[in-house]
Amino acid sequence: RAHTRMASAVHFSETFDRDNGSCRKRLKLLESDQCLLDTLERNLEVQFVSNSNTSDTVLCTPTETFKVTKVESSNSTLLASGCLIGGTSGIIRSSVRFHWEICRTTPRVDFRLSLPVYSDENTSVGVAPSLTQVQSYSQASCAELEQTLQTSTILLNETGGHFYLKETTLHQCLDQILMVISLKGWPPSAIPLKACAEDAAKHGSDIILTTHCLKHFALFLSPSGKVNLDVRRVARTLTRSLFVTKEIYESTRHLLNDLHDCLPAQIEPAMSWLDGIITVSVNGEVALATDKGRT
């Protein structure tokens, strides 16, 4: 049976051989869509990332992540220098029997496995990785990793080291902070960061954790060091905690009463704060929504 010969021209720089050593060893074929090709042509940073938590390798651009799969072929692809079109002879430089196939994938980041868990016993310098180190083994683009870091319970120490902070630890610290705010009578829109963190640290946490917790639940921090507490986010966090011990509330009134007891007296919770994280049945019973929504 006759086989159709297909040939296409690929142009390399004049210094390709010198810069890359033997093309027989170094040349690999990578499938590329236009977006990835544009990234490569603009000389933006592209890197392959693998780690011990998965057998897969991904390719990361500044904004996207691609899963990389090796695809074997029974046909040989030949790299030849010279011209093979029109009967002109050329020199076969290398042969390839596979190529790398790529497809977009979601970021593969699990800080519970890749970061040390925060405690007041492991805060020494060198224990937690820097942002550069986290980027080097995270299977996510820089943009995706930054977004994931912002939405996860990640604590940075004074040297920029990253720790994974368990939600239970964060919530316990929040309870201590709310108790201090209630006792001091500070308005939620103007909580002194330093004084509140120091006072809350006397009740079982440390100053690094209490400071982080206040900033985590802040709408913003004023130049004078006053925290404007995001009371909606606090209420949503506390509501999820309430449903750990009580699966169903018989009414929204009972839920709001319990939520009010968890908050400083100067904060009056509203049902609108809980949109998306609770469901109310036709008979008025309240449960935690399956889709927990955003904080």
Q: How would you describe this protein?
A:
The chain is α+β, with helices and mostly antiparallel strands. Helices cover 34% and strands 22% of the residues. The chain has eleven helices and twelve strands. A four-stranded antiparallel beta sheet has the order 1-2-3-4, with no helix packed on it. Strands 7-9-8 form a three-stranded antiparallel beta sheet. It has a three-stranded antiparallel beta sheet with strand order 10-12-11. Helix 7 crosses helix 8, helix 7 (167-184) crosses helix 9 and helix 8 packs across helix 9.
Q: What is the spatial order of strands in the main beta sheet?
A: 1-2-3-4
Major beta sheet summary: 4 strands, antiparallel
Poorly predicted tracts of residues: none
Fraction in beta strands: 15-25%
| CA-CA gap between termini | 64 Å
Order of helices and strands: HHHEEEEHHHEEHEHHEEHEHEE
In one word, what is the shape? elongated
Q: What number is the mean pLDDT? A: 85
- What's the helical proportion of residues? 25-40%
- How many DSSP helices? 11
Q: Kindly state the number of beta strands.
A: 12
- Computed CA radius of gyration, to the nearest angstrom: 28 Å
| SS-based class | alpha+beta
Question: Which terms would index this structure?
Answer:
three-stranded antiparallel beta sheet, alpha+beta, 295 residues, single chain
